[in-house]
Structures are given as structure tokens and as C-alpha cells.
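Entry 12.
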Amino acid sequence: MNTNVRRFAQLAAAKGMALASPAPEWAEASLLRSFGVDGRKCYRRAAALVAKIPPAGRRASPGELPFEQATKFPFALDPRTATGVGLELPPELLLLNEKVIE
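Predicted 3D structure (C-alpha cells):
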């Protein structure tokens, strides 16, 4: 995790603000919410795709290389951060989460 994320979250909390991030793992640093692809999984998939690139000497057309797109976008909320900045989260919103940070 980026070491500055936790510091940004602390500064925002001191000002009564909440931060959001596209990286799910950053929600664990006391950001209010995150919604986006899991970067760690994307890197693993990228490595698998690189392994499919033809060896040197064999020219491949771009159409021969596979294309993948993320299909899962995890949503995470930190209710403690919401309470800290004066937000009340509806229970329905908590039910939509893939991960609730406690």
C-alpha cells in the first residue's frame, strides 16, 4: 500500500473530510470508500497475458493477442470514517458492500 495514503486519510479526518479511492486495498487506510478493480489481481492477470506473447522471431498481429477486461469492481466502506466525519450510512448501502472495514 502507498505509505502516503494513511497520512492523507489522517489529514482529511483532522479537517472533517472523507476520502475515496479507486483502489479497494486503500479503504483499509481509513478512507471512507473505495470502488474499483483490485490492482493486485490485475497485475497477476497481466503477467499471465505477457506469457502468451509469442517468442521473438514470430511476428504476431495484435488480433492474435488476447484481450481481457476487469469484470469485478469491489466496493468497500469504512463506517468508522463515516461516523468520524458526521455521515450516517443507510443499512442498504452497507449491504451492497463486498467488504465493510471494521
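Annotation: The chain has two domains: 1-36+73-102, 38-71. Residues 1-36+73-102 form one domain.
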